[in-house]
Amino acid sequence: MPPARQGRYQPAREYHIVVLGAGGVGKSCLTAQFVHNEWIESYDPTIEDSYRTQVSVDGRQVILEILDTAGTEQFVAMRDLYMKTGQGFLLVFSISQSSSLAELMTLRDEIIRIKDDETIPIVLVGNKADLEDQRAVPRTKGFSISQRWGAPYYEASARTRTNVDEVFVDLCRQMLRRDDAAETTHGEEDKFDPYSISYYKNRRKRKEGKEHNRPRCVIL
Ligand SMILES: Nc1nc2c(ncn2[C@@H]2O[C@H](COP(=O)(O)OP(=O)(O)OP(=O)(O)O)[C@@H](O)[C@H]2O)c(=O)[nH]1
Ligand SMILES: [Mg+2]
User: Fold this and answer.
1) Quick check: CB of 173 below 6 Å from ligand 1?
2) Is domain 13-184 given the CATH code 3.40.50.300 in the classification?
3) Closest-lying ligand 1 atom to the alpha carbon of residue 158
4) pLDDT tens digits, residue range 128-138?
5) Which of 88, 104, 131, 220 gives the lowest tally of CB atoms within 10 Å of its CB?
């Protein structure tokens, strides 16, 4: 925790997480294990489910609104909307199905396009790690893709509850770090020091940033 925060009361942060990936890769099972500690053997394709839960991450309270999405094509109409709302994304594939990893490439591109942000918090999850004998995606492949994305890679199993908490907590840490960094930058920028070059540099950056974020004009 940065020293400036010590001893200060910090209200719980609230974040929207979106769980994405192909149909049947285990998105609902991972979410159910994380939120309710339960294993679901049967397969019931999701249309859309949301869960609200609270976790403690490095001593900080975080409220999560988790959106478990549909992997099957016919339910994907809402994608743009929830990608806009999401602040962190769990991109899940099954290590036993290489096409499920390929599907994530398009999803990740879409997230970045919609958020207009290459550094949006993402965790790449290779689920069904308990099915080692059916592995179709080498661990090194998942890892090299995650490195290309600048995102962490976990192999997980909803069945054995391996790395389930870890993937959600990693995403929370990324979102918290992002918020902390934004707050620190704004805090420093707000201190007016007429003799400081960095004050003017930051002011210019802030102005340029605002211009960059200005909504684009869309002609329909
Ligand atoms: N062996 C194994 N099976 C799993 C694991 N996770 C999920 N499954 C099984 O895979 C099937 C699909 O799991 P779901 O969690 O419903 O998959 P989903 O990604 O939510 O699927 P959609 O809602 O259709 O997008 C179920 O029969 C689960 O029991 C896992 O880690 N290991
Ligand atoms: Mg599901």
Assistant:
1) no
2) yes
3) 31
4) 999 999 999 99
5) 220
Q: What is the DSSP string of 54-118?
A: EEEETTEEEEEEEEEE--SGGGGGGHHHHHHH-SEEEEEEETT-HHHHHHHHHHHHHHHHHHT-T
Across 141-152, average pLDDT: 97
Strand bridging mode 60-69 / 48-57: antiparallel
Name the amino acid, one letter, at 61. Q
Closest CA to 111 of 72, 75, 151: 151
Are 9 and 59 spatial neighbours (Cβ–Cβ below 8 Å)? no
Residues 92, 134: Cα–Cα separation, whole Å:
17
- Of 25, 29, 69, the residue with max ligand 1 atoms within 8 A of its CB, to mutate for a pocket test, comes to 29
Mean pLDDT over all residues of the chain? 86
pLDDT single digits (tens) 41-80: 999 999 889 999 999 999 999 999 999 999 976 656 678 8
Query: Domain spans of the chain?
Result: 13-184
182 vs 131, higher pLDDT? 131
Helix axes 164-190, 27-36, angle to 10 degrees: 80
Q: How many angstroms does the Cα of residue 61 sit away from the middle of ligand 1?
A: 29
